[in-house]
Here is the input.
Amino acid sequence: MTEGNVAYEPTSVSLEALASLGEGHIAYVKQIRSEDVPGLFPQAPKIAPGLKLFALHAADGTPIMLTDSREAAIANAWSNELQAVSVH
Here is the structure.
């Protein structure tokens, strides 16, 4: 594809390479429902249904922590020297 005088060649990125982007530097915060907790955090105690929670994940998707506030998730990322980004 060419746009003006600039050539653009799309490249494919492997899933492994995509998963490793930001590894050790970036974490993401995602709002989840309490019903989703057992699948993400199997070791967590039973939580009442219908709650809005926030999960902090490593760049590769590994769950790091669960909290009831977005601010606490971001603070945990910062304390572990990770840049937090939100996922909607």
